[in-house]
Structure prediction request, 145 residues.
Amino acid sequence: MTFSSAPILCPKLNQGCLECTVVARQWDMDRLLTDLARARGRKLPPTETCWLHLLLYGFSPEAIAHRLVRSNISPELTRGIYRYVEEVTGKEVNNWAQVKLYLEEKGYKKVIVYIVVRGQDFQELESRLKQQAGIRGSIVFEEVE
Prediction:
């Protein structure tokens, strides 16, 4: 996966969203949304997808409500995202901060490691890293001057 500097279109606000872009870089959102959809029985609606991004970014339910000009969203989170996360992680969610913690423990957060290499064949290095470190995902090389 390569990283773009262009903001990701927020599923709820239909505009570029810094928080969604940061979360997409740090979390395996495709796998997470697929697993949450399985727990829910169907795809998450745009509103819940937006809330999930903001929770993973670190927003509290109060901050999300303020950001989206909504009233209290805590009851909806409790009936929705919290239950899906419980299904996926096998842990009871009692507050918003546990969502991020439990999903990270379950391996949905990407591990990002920066290695400075000079004069190295990137394909050979990628192959060796995958074999020796047991990396299953993508490795992105970025040339730095």
